[in-house]
Amino acid sequence: MRANETVRQVTTRLCAAFVMLGLSAAGALAGQAYVFDKAHTVIRFSWNHLGFTEQSARFTAFDGRLVFDEKEPSKSAISVTIRADSVLSGIDGMDKALKGPDYFDVAKHPDIRFESTRIRRTGAKTGEMTGNLTIKGITRPVTLAVTFRFAGPHPLGPLIAKYKGVRVAAFSARGRVLRSDFGMGKYVPLVSDEIAISIETEWFAEK
User: What is the pTM of this model?
Assistant: First the structure.
């Protein structure tokens, strides 16, 4: 009888522990959920060409979800998927090359993905976000410096009906990666290995 009671006690404690762990995990992402305002988001990358000029391109098709905790940014998280074939430089030959096997190889690897793993505040309006970036099936850690621009009711709400009662958030982010880390090292070092990432993004709160 005592043995049975001991088993019940242990089982009860284990169940309680699992419940508490579940509550803790749920509470870890207790902020507001957002989706991209795609009309006001630009995901751009740039490189140096032969030491002569800075060239750039951007992606025009992407999806993502942000959970943002304004009081405790470290509890925030973001996941983004970019369609690699949406790369746009404005030069047809460049776009064809970027989509080809030497670079993004969009036929075999249609998606680029980013999943945050750590976010920390570095100032009143700044933070540092680390995550896993996957390009061409290769995953590497990347750190972005983030500037918080705004979170609150859309400023155009009183003027434009579709924004009435809509909550928005806005950020800027900057970072650097080595393209050779993702199997895209053609013409290095004549064309820079280092790629600068520049993101300007606005988000709509999920309803």
Answer: 0.83
